[in-house]
Every structure is written in structure tokens, then in C-alpha cells.
Amino acid sequence: MSDNRRWQRPFFLIWGGQAFSLLGSSLVQFALVWWLTQETGSATVLAMATLVAMLPGIVIGPFAGALVDRWPRRWVMVMADASVALATALALVLAWNGSLQPWHVYVVMFIRGCGGAFHWPAMQASTSLMVPVQHLARVAGMNQTLYGLMNIMAPPLGALLLSLAALPLILLIDIVTAALAIAPLLFIAVPQPPAAPAAGPRPSVLADLRAGLRYVGVWPGLLMVMVIATVINFVLTPAFSLMPLLVVDHFQGGPWHLGGLESAFGIGVVLGGLALSAWGGFRRRIYTSLAGLVGMGLGVMLIGLTPASLFALALGAMFLAGFTQPMVNGPIMAIIQATVAPEMQGRVLALMYAASTAMTPLSLAVAGPVADVVGITPWYVAGGLICLLMAGVGLLLPPLLRIEDHAPAAAAVDGGGT
Known about the structure:
- By secondary structure, this protein is an all-alpha fold.
- The protein has a single domain (4-188, 205-414), classed as Growth Hormone, Chain: A.
- Helices cover 80% and strands 0% of the residues.
- It has helices at residues 4-40, 43-59, 61-68, 73-96, 102-130, 136-164, 167-185, 205-217, 220-241, 243-250, 255-279, 285-305, 311-339, 345-356, 360-374, 377-394, 398-401, 410-414.
- Helix 2 packs across helix 5, helix 3 (61-68) packs parallel to helix 5 and helix 9 packs across helix 14.
- The longest helix is centred in the first third of the chain and has 37 residues, at 4-40.
- It starts with a helix and ends with a helix.
- The model has no long low-confidence stretch (mean pLDDT 83).
């Protein structure tokens, strides 16, 4: 690990393959959402699509995290990428035959969500074992920059492909990029955390899951992060899920306007990630996250306040929200990867995702019908205000501000793996 070349080459070969896969997934997400918007024009349908995509992470995510900590993480990622490609292939066949229906899209998004429920904790938990600890924050910034680049590239590229070719072409691209992500995993070994000393029969998956719950339960700072993330996701997930209708109903725009908003967000994420990499953030990473949350709240609130005739202002608001997103997410991920015991990271990351998104199904169920009745923009205003409120509350919680000082010991919490 001390020799940069020894860790950089295998890690970035895998990381590069995942970058191609992320591009394909972003194109498919853009294309399917726009297809649903054109076919139905319903906020409820769009909210339902987001709901079925997120449910696997909420319901099976904690179990997936426990399995990630037991299984070879390399093969978990291979199978997850392969399942996503198969789901996309199903949609391709249906679209090619002209028989694609909204419920088909729901099924495809659900399968893709199942793959993501395994892939994301496996990749993040593997990162902490492949990358030296002093470079984890930098890699977290690179990941945020990559997500931003996808937001820049995928929407206009998706809009261009939709204008030049049919939906099946975009779906085919996703299958090819999934193959590019799988290829390096077939030849590069991914480290596994050291196995705990055997003190009897291997514990069950449920026992591993309970150990993960205990690990999180005795860490007040992490519990507070989960609560704040749950509240934020409750209001922001519907806002971004309903953005196609914001474009169509409020700004009277088309796919290029939607692509412009998403690209403005992506440009902001890229520049925000670069700024965070250059600056490094505050000494206590959590302060950087709370400051970023203030900026994100202001940006989202401004989107809801923008008149229909000032689309350029909405672009600026999306840029601000994107610029501050790496400040929120990057430091939190670096805290987890640097502080959580490697053999617990799959479970902790999956539990964090499940807990932070647990209320999202309710918010989507509420937001779709509400937006159909009163319009889209009030949800953005409320979401921005709640982000500001959560940032203020966070500054008043000492366990949250000292989250890096009080991580539990895995052995003490796990009780010897039983």
C-alpha cells in the first residue's frame, strides 16, 4: 500500500470500469424517466418509478450489507452489474417490439435497484481496503466529481440520442458499459477484510445484521447523521424525481431544458468536488457537511421561487445545489471509510442507506398526488427550508460534531461474531 503504483493501478482499473457503467446507467435513467413523462405526464407515475427503484435499498439493503461482509466483494459487484444488464436487456426487447408499458419500467427499475443495493456497499467497502487511508478523502472527492460529470454528460447526451435514435439504442449502450465494468473485476483481486477468529459455528446472516445494528446503535453521532439524512431525503428525493414535470408544467420546456438543469447541477458537483479537493474542508469534516447543507438548501429553495420566465435563474440555482452537494456527501463518506472497522463497512453503509431513505416511500406517495393538485414549486421551497433547518439543528448536537471521536470498536460491539 505504501507504493502508490501498487494500489493505484488495480483500483483505478476497477474504478474506470464503474465510471463507464455509471454513464450507461445515467443515460438509461434519463431516457426512461423522459419516456414515462411523455407517455403519462403524471407526477404520481414519476414518483412511483422512483419509489420502486429505491425500495430494494430500503428493504433488502441491510441484508445485502451483511452478505457483502460475508461474500467475496469482487463477485458481488460482478453479479450486481450482470443483473442490471439483464434488466436493461429486458427493457430493450420490449421497447424494440413497441410493447413497453409503464409497469415494465417499474419492474426494470426494481431489478436495477436490487443490483445497486448490493453493488454500492460492496464498492464502497472495497475502496477502504484498496486505498490508503490518507487518500480516502481524495477518492471520495473524485467520486463526487464523477457523479457530477455524469450529470453534465448524460442529460444532453441522452436528449441528443433520443432526438437521433430510438430508446433501444440507449438501452444497448447501458449493456455495453455494464460489460466494461465487469471485465476488470474478472481479473483483479479485491481485498477482503480479515476474518474474525472462529469461536464456534459461523454466525447467521441475521446475527451479522444484528451485529451491524448494535455497531450503529452505540454510535450517537452516526445515528444523528441518519436522522438528518432521513429528513432531507424525505423532501429532496421527490423534488428531484418530479423535475421533468417542473420543466414541462412550470417552465413549459422539453428534454433539452431538463438536460440543462441536470447538467447545471452536474457542473456544480464537478466544480464543488474540485474545490473541496483543493481546500480540504474544515479540520472536523462534519462542519464541511453542515456548511454544504446550507448552500444546498438555498439552491433548492431558489428553484421553487424562480418565475417561469427566468429559466436562467433556475440553472443558477441548480448549479449552487450541485456545487455544495460534494461538501455534504464527500466528508461523510470519508468519515465512514476512515473510522468504521473494515469488516463492518458493508453492513454500516447499507444500514445508513436504508435508514436515511426509509421515509422516502411515504414522501413519494404524498408528493406525487400533492404536486398533481397544487403544483411542483412549493415542494422545492419546503425542501430548501428544511435543509437550512437541519443544518442549524446539526450545529447544536455535540455528538454529531464529535462523530469522528466516538466510533465503537467492532470486536466489542460484535461480541465475538455472534
